[in-house]
């Protein structure tokens, strides 16, 4: 059974207040209009409205177990009619039993019986409809909650898939480099294995962390860059500049590494010359901005890095922020390819999950 309306404290208080007010008005009408004494008026009001209130509670609990569909509303009307007959019978029986000596009051009961039945039926119908509306809204809310939970689980699954899809490519390249170094430079191979183990250990540790601060991410990136420097030796130079005010800002974990990997890959593509990869981290308009620049050959389209890496990052950013424009790329006349990443900053980072 779902939550009943009367289990909500505010509704219980309001309903009790309305019942008390109606019982007072009902008793006053019998006392003033029908010209009976206060004892009869209060007793009539207490029994009539007390039995009606009990019927409403029973009806509410019954509808908690059984939610009639639109095509079965006739059964709800039938149930309300049956309860009306029961309430009228119990009320008349109780009042006649208490006031057997008052023929005038018994005549009054018989005369007002149709009116009482109509009022009781309308009250029960109102109670039934409000309860049906309550349960349907609650059911809809639960359904929306389940749908939202399912969507969040699907989003998290896709985010995890995107994070993990990016790692094997780097791992395969690194293992190939280790294999080559074991032949020509075993010492460097040992250094690279140590750094690679630390990098992968950090990756596993960060799998459950959606958000990390810039300082943590740059330590992770520096470890990655150390591995790449071992791979490419003197051919690769890294120029990293980070504004101090950005160190405590946050970004999605393991998001920057594929961008840097993309820059190194296509910066060194089809060239034996030394290159410089620049990384700039700054704060602009309450957004963390990271720019990664690499040289490229304008005659080679593949050197612009439009493959899986950047598209996966765009997809991940869209899932987190619902914004497809947070990752931008541009080329400059001096044969530089610049990837710009913008991460909006909020007071509560969990709001973006």
Protein described:
Helices cover 64% and strands 13% of the residues. The chain starts with 8 loop residues before the first helix and ends in a 9-residue tail after the last strand. It has 2 domains: 143 residues, no CATH class; 168 residues, 2-Layer Sandwich (Heat Shock Protein 90), CATH 3.30.565.10. It has 8 helices and 7 strands. A hairpin with a 2-residue loop joins strand 4 and strand 5. The chain is α+β, with helices and mostly antiparallel strands. The strands form 2 sheets. Strands 2-4-5-7-6 form a 5-stranded mixed β-sheet. Strands 1-3 form a two-stranded antiparallel ribbon.
The counted number of beta strands is: 7
Poorly predicted parts: 302-306, 348-353
Secondary-structure element order, N to C: HHHHHEHEEHEEHEE
Residues in β-strands, percent: 5-15%
- What name does the CATH topology of the largest domain carry? Heat Shock Protein 90
For this structure, what is the CATH class of the largest domain? Alpha Beta
Tally the helices: 8
Mean pLDDT: 80
Helix content: 55-70%
Radius of gyration: 38 Å
Task: Kindly report how far apart the N and C termini lie.
Answer: 32 Å
Q: Helix/strand-derived class?
A: alpha+beta
Largest sheet: 5 strands, mixed
CATH superfamily annotation of the largest domain: Histidine kinase-like ATPase, C-terminal domain
Q: Give the strand order, joined by hyphens, for the main sheet.
A: 2-4-5-7-6
Instruction: Quickly count the domains.
Output: 2
For the record, the CATH architecture of the largest domain stands as: 2-Layer Sandwich
Quick one: overall form? Answer: rod-shaped
